[in-house]
Amino acid sequence: MPMPNRTAVIAFSGLSAVGLLAGCAPAATESVTPTTDTATVEPTTGSTSESVSTPVPLADEATVDSGFADGTYTADGSYVAPSGPETISVTVTLADGTIAAVEVTGHATDPQAKRHQADFIGGIAAVVVGQPIEGLSVDRVAGSSLTGQGFNAALDAIRAEADA
Amino acid sequence: MRFEGIGVPWEIATAEPLDERVQNAILQRVADYDRTWSRFRADSLVARIGREPGQWRLPAEAGPLLELYRELYEATGGRMNPLVGASLARLGYGAGMSLKATGDALPAVRWEDAIAWDGVVLSAPRPVSIDVGAAGKGQLCDLVGEVLRAHGVEEFVVDASGDILRRGAGTIRVALEHPADPRLAVGVVELGDGAICASATNRRAWGDGLHHVIDALTGLPVDDIVATWAIGADAMTADGVATALFMTSGTRLPSGLGVEWARISSSGRIEVSAGFPGEVFA
Fold first, then answer.
1. How far apart are CA A141 and CA A133, in angstroms?
2. Which residues of A touch B191 (CB under 8 A)?
3. Do B32 and B24 contact (CB within 8 A), yes or no?
4. Residue B160: phi, psi to the nearest 5?
């Protein structure tokens, strides 16, 4: 897969950006009130920029109209927190017409809102969507859930020592 | 068939139960591999190489293994290096398994300074601590698969605690474990004839940012990527790439490896390769 080599800017609607957050972090959505028509956009790299008003679909299986060039797109989405307006940045990397990466960064200034943003940006558990494996009807799990007995024994020994 | 090998539980699924002869051949293969490559036993070959300088004739599997390591060493600018054994031991993940750091982080020695490998003989002018943990488990899946095929078993799943080699028609569904919660999946892939290997820093972690994926240039655990998956034709390549993805984006890995991949950063960034045969719930 080639590295994105074109940069352009897409104006997300505020709703799209917040929609992403809602999808990513159900627990954090109470603090996020969607607003529309408030997106501001900045180019991330490069000097060429163009504005496209169509929101980028952000669902995991989304494909992008052939009109979208490969590249990294960043948009700020605004929402109104109890303390006032706050923004988050959403960076999307498009490659071969599909979303290769999504990154969310918070810009909250209010401590409360900052904490809410940190909750889903800093904590991987809150940022990354998970679905119960039990409900997925899968045959196997690829992960590192089973750790070696020697390792576990060492951990047990340390816990015992720490308790003593 | 279930057994414990190279420190982790294994499961081999086949249509028909494996007879004792095949089971013994598998256990023998795993035991041989452990005796060569285990950093955790004093009588292994790599333990000797860690004590004595010399020229060492390595078993046949070393050829493709070190070739892959060399390719990933170069692709990651030296950050992935099989000579991180001493770095891991310094952090407490050595033969004694103290799981306590015994000093400052120790960067690994550079490959080109420490060893020469001609495909058969490894020359180490000074003792050097080799750790093939990044691709060794995957390679052992492949080698177990060869034992099965040599005994006429053509369709099977070898599951070495999350590193999975599958041979046969059709596909199975494999969940991608959530890096923070093993009860959850962050995605699902369809695995046909091939392998999927995963790596995550939440496991084999022993507190305060210490875990088993080490940046050879610093001797410290990597901290910006928390979980990776790689899907390839063989488990050794997929396993090695799963570790390399902690050091570099899959877009910078040699395309000749033929691997599809996904990774998740500590800030929640999810990258998925264009041809990834599945879904990530981003």
1. 8
2. 140
3. no
4. -100, 70
Nearest by Cα to A146 from B174, B225, B156, B204:
B204
Q: What is the pLDDT of residues A75-105, one digit of tens each?
A: 665 555 555 665 666 566 666 655 555 555 5
Strand B278-280 relative to strand A131-132, pairing? unpaired
Query: Does residue B248 contact residue B259 with C-beta atoms inside 8 Å?
Result: no
Q: How far apart are CA B267 and CA A122, in angstroms?
A: 6
Residues of B in contact with A148 (CB under 8 A): 7-8, 204
Of B40, B185, B282, the CB nearest to A136: B185
Q: Closest approach of chain B CAs to the CA of A43, in angstroms?
A: 19
- The band of A44, judged by pLDDT with boundaries at 50, 70 and 90, is very low
Asked if pLDDT for residue A107 goes beyond 80, the answer is: no
Distance from CA of A150 to the nearest CA of B (A): 7
pTM of the shown model: 0.69
Whether residues A138 and B185 touch (CB distance < 8 A) is answered with yes
